[in-house]
Amino acid sequence: MEYVYSALLLYRAGKAIDEHGVKKVLEAAGIKVDEGRVKALVAALDGVNIDEAIKEAAVVSVAAPAAASGHAAHAPEAKKEEKKPSEDAAAGLGSLFG
After folding, report:
1. pTM of the prediction?
2. What is the pLDDT of residue 98?
C-alpha cells in the first residue's frame, strides 16, 4: 500500500512517477525498498490517467456500500429447516452401512 501512496504523493506534488522518485519517497518514510515492487508499480502506472482512476475509485467506493445496504434491507431472512434429532441419528447410522 505504501508503494501506491508514494506514487500518489509524487503525482500530487506534480513530480514524475518514476523509480527514482518512488524510492526517494519510500526511503524518506523509513520503508525498506523492494526494487521489484517499485519497477512493477511504475510499469503498472505507465499510461494511466490518475485523475480518472481516482474519480472511478471514488464512485465505486460510494456506490458499493449504498448497493449493499439497500440489498440487505430488502432481503428476506432464510428459514432454517429444522430436523428432528431422530432423523439426524438415522442419517448417521445409515452412513455406517453404506
Report:
1. 0.58
2. 47
